[in-house]
Amino acid sequence: MPLKRIIFVFFFAFFSAPVLGQKDSVNIDREMFKKDIKIEKAGIYNPLAPAKAAFYSAIFPGLGQIYNKKYWKTPIVWGAMGTSIYYYLNNNKEYKRYRTAYKLRRNNLIDEFTIDGNEIISLRTLERAQDQLRENRDLSLLTSIILYVLQIVEASVNSHLLQFNTDDNLSLKPTFINDPIKIDAPKVGLTIKYNF
Asked: What is the pTM for the complete model shown?
């Protein structure tokens, strides 16, 4: 009989402890509950967001900046990429023009820089112009590639940084600390303000 009482008391205590340990969930303020959910959703780190931003920027330059909602950066990306591509196309066209004239001149044919039998530009100048235009064309292509990669990296890094807390409670301010013993010059220091 005492064993049955011990088992009964044990089961009663075991199953009643969780019931008594919980708060009443019926009387929860619904507005507070909604605010808590919004705060939790805002603080969730999305590890795929930087990858999406980089992917969109790789598909079309400036699209990653739009994904990050940094719309003002998109015209800058387009302008930089458009300018470098314009110079690449222009230098390539001029290079082909001077290259064709150089080949014609080497074969003793009339080119666009020969008027009435007079050579406006010498053969040596045509050769130097080709070299310079080829160098400019290659530099414009390299600039376009670098700008393309940089806008992808910028979109990815910006997406990473957008997920961090940048509240005013986190600040770093330079301050002057007056030393009452030495009046000569104030000491320079940094104050780190961090509030919970």
From this structure: 0.63
